[in-house]
């Protein structure tokens, strides 16, 4: 059930997006393929830094909810 609920927002966003912007689908897929390894490398690099890990360990319980609320407000606006 959680997987179904989590996927519903993706379907609700991406289906209309691709239905309207299908002419740029090739560009979207190329950018996704190019940026995915970059984001993975950046996250691995950050995850190997002790100062980052200590900060996330210490303040993560405040940072994560604040980020979710900020993203929610951004989507609403």
Rg over CA atoms, rounded to whole Å, is 17 Å
Q: Quick one: overall form?
A: extended
Major sheet characteristics: none
**H and E order:** HHH
Helix/strand class: mainly alpha
Percent in helix: over 70%
Q: Helical region count?
A: 3
Mean pLDDT across all amino acids? 85
Distance between the termini: 29 Å
List unreliable stretches of 5+ residues.
none
Strand content: under 5%
Q: Using DSSP, what is the number of strands?
A: 0
Give a short overview.
This protein is 90% helix and 0% strand. It is mainly α.
3D architecture notes:
This protein is mostly helical. Helices cover 90% and strands 0% of the residues. The longest helix is centred in the last third of the chain and has 27 residues, at 50-76.
Question: Layout of SSEs?
Answer:
Blueprint: H1 2-20, H2 25-47, H3 50-76
List its salient traits:
77 residues, mainly alpha, 3 helices
